[in-house]
Specification:
single chain, mainly beta, eleven-stranded antiparallel sheet, 1 helix
Length: about 200
């Protein structure tokens, strides 16, 4: 069918005040949040999505200037291209719903569906574990297979992935990831994951 543009999103501003009758100084914090989901921009095969927040404490701007990621947290920032109904390519930071417990991945993700079956791959980096910024030393790559039996009344999806994560030139983790989700009953859903490590770090 014809592609139609659909854009939704929100911007929010929150302020938190901490008032104290002790010698501790009063403080005020601000949080700004942006959420945007732009599907089929200009009726094209391209989409864009982002979810990010910016937090800072009044009068404590040096913390932000020392490292922008002390305040800026980007949870999702990706450009998506759907060349056809069975193929999706994304570039940027995105949580893959087939591998949700692995968390956000920075880089390239490709998925191809074959009826109820799907296969995909991802390559890039993972967010920094200290400030959730971008870290080119934390390389990761992997591939997965999945089965989706979704219909009008029930939902069931299973995926199995092989992942390798690096820390510099060293292997950090090499593991198999399993995820299953289904609709147990109306308005009741189940999701379960587990991981099996295939590589053991040797400590001298």
């Amino acid at each position: 069918g014809e592609l139609k543009q659909h854009i939704s999103g929100s911007v929010s501003v929150n302020s938190y005040s901490d008032l104290s009758d002790t010698p501790a100084a009063n403080s005020q914090r601000f949080r700004y949040t942006l959420s945007l989901d732009a599907r089929n921009i200009a009726n094209s095969k391209f989409s864009f999505e982002t979810y990010a927040s910016f937090r800072h404490k009044l009068g404590d701007w040096d913390v932000v200037k020392s490292d922008i990621f002390n305040a800026l947290k980007i949870f999702n920032l990706a450009v998506i291209y759907d060349p056809n109904k069975s193929t999706r390519i994304s570039l940027g930071r995105r949580i893959n719903p087939r591998l949700s417990n692995i968390g956000a991945a920075d880089g390239l993700q490709i998925e191809k569906s074959f009826g109820k079956f799907m296969m995909g791959a991802l390559a890039g980096t993972r967010p920094d574990y200290a400030d959730y910024g971008f870290n080119t030393n934390l390389l990761q790559f992997g591939g997965y297979l999945g089965l989706n039996t979704k219909n009008s009344k029930t939902f069931s999806e299973t995926s199995v992935a092989f992942m390798q994560q690096m820390n510099g030139s060293n292997i950090d983790r090499r593991f198999i990831y399993f995820q299953h989700s289904n609709s147990i009953a109306k308005n009741l859903y189940f999701i379960g994951t587990f991981e099996v490590d295939l590589y053991q770090l040797k400590v001298d």
